[in-house]
Give the backbone structure.
Amino acid sequence: MTDACHLSFDPAAMQVDAIHAFLTRSYWAADIPRAVVERAIAGSLCVGAFASGRDQVGFARVVTDRATFAYLADVYVLETHRGRGLAARMVKALHDHPDLQGLRRWMLATSDAHGLYSSLGWTGIDDPAPFMQRHFPDVYRQG
Ligand SMILES: CC(C)(COP(=O)(O)OP(=O)(O)OC[C@H]1O[C@@H](n2cnc3c(N)ncnc32)[C@H](O)[C@@H]1OP(=O)(O)O)[C@@H](O)C(=O)NCCC(=O)NCCS
């Protein structure tokens, strides 16, 4: 079944309405405006998974300088296509992307999908003390 889906890095192939529809019901980006999704896609290196009917069924993006650092975000696969290795294929495709070789650090945040990433070589942060953040969890609800 997985073989019926193909991956693409083509920014023009990303189906913004479908991506926005999923993200608005995700635990991390509920209420995200469509225009913000569009801007995020434009500023990221994205991978999409497409079913044979060309519908987009999966997505992931990397925010990166393409030299030193990458932040992996918005990884999802539609419920109908889960459990077939699609998320792993998308993340591996990003790992292998020619613009993302030799980076010093990749990061991501996840509530419950640690198993997916640890199977792909990601680890927890032994010492979180050096890391800081600016975090505005309600920003999409403020209009
Ligand atoms: C998490 C998600 C992207 C996984 O997609 P998927 O295509 O079903 O995942 P895969 O089939 O590629 O799974 C690959 C491996 O990761 C494991 N895995 C997948 N989701 C997992 C999860 N939530 N927790 C732990 N392990 C997980 C699978 O068991 C599989 O392991 P295996 O190779 O040993 O069999 C999908 O369930 C999803 O979209 N969830 C909602 C959005 C979300 O939580 N995204 C992650 C945000 S960081």
